[in-house]
Write a structure and sequence with these properties.
The chain is an alpha+beta fold. It contains nine helices and eight strands. The chain folds into two domains: about 140 residues, no CATH class; about 90 residues, Beta Barrel (OB fold (Dihydrolipoamide Acetyltransferase, E2P)). Helices cover about 55% and strands about 15% of the residues. Strand 7 and strand 8 form a beta hairpin.
Amino acid sequence: MRFRDLIGDPALWARRLTLATATGMLLGLIGPFGSYLNDNAVARMAYWTGLVWLGTVLHSLGFAAAVSLGARWRLPRSFSVAAGIVIASVPLAAASALIGHLAWPRYTRDLGPLDWYGQTLIVSALLVAGLLWIEGRLRTDPPSPAPGPTDDPRLPARLRDQALCLQMEDHYVRVHTPSGSELVLMPMREAIAALGGLEGLQVHRSWWVARRAVTEAKPAGRAASLTLTNGLVAPVARNRVTDLRAQGWLS
């Protein structure tokens, strides 16, 4: 497992740190948890920006480690993300308390460890949720390559031959088969290419569906949904409805 696959490339980090800087400056102006009493706005912005930068690093590493271990132990992704936030907030709360006591002892002397950790956990959960939402909105997949024979060890033959659909989960792809599902660490476009000539379509930014797996197609306004042989329901994006209808997937 490559280090870059776990924590993201430089472009992703540049985007994260840009968002962290903007968030830190905003928190410095607002002054949450009574920090508006601490010194002037410039000092507060420096304090919050530094903490959000540190939190971005800690939570990015914690998120990558938690999701990786969670996939290995077959834990729900939401549980892994929550565990990563809870654990990464411990050193971040310690750093916040240390800086706060040194810079503003008058205002922070009555705060105990649980106060610092509780405040850090609240801010961390909100910021991580916002960051994941923004990255999800900004992420775009290039057009799927033309199908062809491939031999990618990340997608074993037993999964390729039985794949009903692919579901993107952050840096992972969940491969659904009649006997269950497994997470593989690879981009969606590469997973689709690894399926070779298996007939199917990418019906949504996060979903690819095999034609043989569809048992029912239901229009839903301008969008649609596909029911698969394993009972799973795959969403169809609005901009894909026309293509599916043209190829006979939708009546």
